[in-house]
Amino acid sequence: MAKTLRLGVLLSGGGRTLQNLLDHIRHGKLEAEVAAVVASRSGIRGIEIAKAAGLPTHLVRPKDYSTVQAYSDALVKILDEAQVDLVVLAGFLSYWIIPDRYLGRIINIHPALLPAFGGKGMYGHHVHEAVLARGCKVSGCTVHFVNNTYDDGPIILQRSVPVYAEDTPDDLAARVFREECTAYPETIRLFAEGHLRIEGRTVHIDDPKYQRP
Fold first, then answer.
1. What is the spatial distance between Cα 149 and Cα 92, in angstroms, rounded to a whole number?
2. pTM higher than 0.85 for the full model?
3. Three-state secondary structure of 11-32
4. What angle do CA 17, 22, 25 make, to 5 degrees?
5. Collapsed DSSP state (helix, strand, coil) of residue 101
6. In the chain, what percentage of residues exceed pLDDT 70?
7. pLDDT tens by residue, 69-114
8. Which own/partner contact pairs does 97-102 have at CB distance under 8 Å and 24+ positions apart?
């Protein structure tokens, strides 16, 4: 029997992505378990969701550490102790230093089609506002591996949505998030089944679903 993938989920906000993953797991659509949840801010909805689900939940705030390295070490200690196979960033806004042994084992989802509208400061509604201000006709979401540069890791999956002239940032955010709810669990499935192979900055997906007919 295949080993169930152990996830470490890092979040800084409302926990919608965590809830989506838990829903997929509960309904048998994703063969995984959340082994640890780490929040970077207190008083957020994501902590409530994690605790309500009975998940091991940790609060690790950057302001409680004197250096980024000390903060990063605290995060990694929790992930190591939980024996996570894959780290999932779920609206996690704190910078941390990723050790080499975790490269290729951390993923993030960005609410635009990278490499456009990425980088430091480009998160949440800032992204959707920038997309609308630029007059883009399509946007979407990007799941990528994470390295130590913002939004720079190899791209795994992308899903697109139309952008309409009358869209508000909220309209576009809702449309993109619907695609995120599909793309993130699908990426985790591909990782769990060993279908992802990194060569340089390219991720090859060795799954017939993603091969040319």
1. 14
2. yes
3. ECCCCHHHHHHHHHHHCCCCCE
4. 130
5. helix
6. 99
7. 999 999 999 999 999 999 999 999 999 999 999 999 999 999 999 9
8. 97/68, 97/69, 97/72, 97/148, 98/72, 98/146, 98/147, 98/148, 99/72, 102/76
Tokens representing 198? 């990194």
Please list the residues that pair with 37 across neighbouring strands.
9, 57
Indicate the pLDDT class of residue 2, thresholds 50, 70 and 90: low
Cα angle at 41 between 34 and 94, to 5 degrees?
85
The structural domains of the chain, ordered by start, are 1-102 (3.40.50.170), 108-213 (3.40.50.170)
Annotation says 58 is catalytic: no
| Integer Cα distance of 42 and 61 in angstroms | 8
Cβ burial, residue 42 (10 Å; 0-12/13-18/19+): exposed
Burial environment of residue 128 by CB neighbours within 10 A (0 to 12, 13 to 18, 19 or more): buried
Q: 33 forms bridges with which residues in the sheet? A: 6
Sheet holding 86-90, edge to edge: 57-59, 32-39, 5-11, 86-90, 106-110, 138-145, 155-162, 202-205, 196-199
pLDDT at 212: 85
The confidence score (pLDDT) of residue 1 equals 45
Tell me the three state secondary structure of residue 48.
Answer: helix
Q: Find the catalytic residue in 110, 125, 128, 204.
A: 110
Give me the chain's average pLDDT, please: 96
Torsion, Cα of 6, 178, 10, 81 (10° steps):
0
